[in-house]
Structure prediction request, 402 residues.
Amino acid sequence: MEQTANNKTMKITVLRYRPEQDDKPWEQTFDVPYHHETSVLEALFYIKDHFEPSLSFRWSCRMAVCGSCGMMVNGVPHLACKTFLRDYEGKDMKIEPLDNFPIERDLVVDLSDLIEKIERIKPYIIPAPKDRNMPLNKSYIQTPQQMAAYLQFAQCINCGCCYAACPQYKLNPDYIGPAALTLLYRYNIDNRDGGKKLRAPFLNEENGVWGCTFVGYCSEVCPKKVDPASAIQLGKKMSATDFVLKLIKPEE
Amino acid sequence: MSEAKSFRKPYKRPVDKLWWLKNKFFTVYMIREGTAVTALFAALEIILGIFLFGLCNLDAETATAETAAPYLWWVQDFLGNPLVIILNLVCLAASLFHAVTWFNLMPKAVRLFMNKNSTELLPDYIVKMGLYGALAGATVVILVFAVATI
Prediction:
């Protein structure tokens, strides 16, 4: 490390919860030295190496690709690897596990609800009946515009930040939530996909797009700039169009 | 099955009733939702005016202070009441706040490509300009109508 002359420290409070001993979470504060490039994840490494070996948190890629290290930094959902201490200069920092999910241990949350909801909406290309017998060595043709239509929404890394930012999910855990609805929209508008009908029940139900009240904070916090709020509002249009079309032309 | 004892005990954090005060973004959102109350007041006020207009003697040959008494009470005593004037100013401010915050969100619900082959999206400011244009247009039409009926 080049930055040796720099010995700034920051007071970092971490929410701890050890299921074996603790009945509820408690706070522990550390003085962590940092330089210009120290990320929150590296600060947690420092705490684990020097002060508290039992501190648990999830991480893997350290470069905002894997989506493991989502956590609340001063009350705002962030990826720890993509958040830097320099941006909190002169302030204290409080790190908590992602909001709206049950805490498993320290900064580790139980994301199984998110995973189940993403699985529920069938996040994969379902071939249309006309493509059912398409040979595996033949590729689908897609124009640049057809790709641009969904590409932004395909950047989701399932980190759960949008769920932690969503007041609707906080108040109603049955709401299917931003990431799942975004992926639903992403596959529905993919020109290679023919599974719209199979996803319709999850889109149209009250806990689907209509559970959203357009707070818009999910798009604000998304570390990959996926803009879930946009996908959900476009999903509302899709759902409303579907409703009207069914009135005019009921299904056989 | 493993013989290991599980220590799993997921902790569900309780939902604080004042969650929307913890974050400025949520507070602004709740104020935006709260403008529904002022909109309700304005709607009831107009309904009251229409109702009192209906109570006037509309069969009379010429409208006099006597035949139009209920409506005149609404215009002079009710709308002229300083408290109602203040409430109406609050309503105006609230609906403007709602318009501005809502217009800022609206481009998210519009995703159009510039043309058939482009991968470029219609920029947000065009959607916003359209909305502000519509707001200005509607305001002018209503004001012209209001001035014309005096």
User: Anything to note?
Assistant: The longest helix of chain B spans residues 24-55.
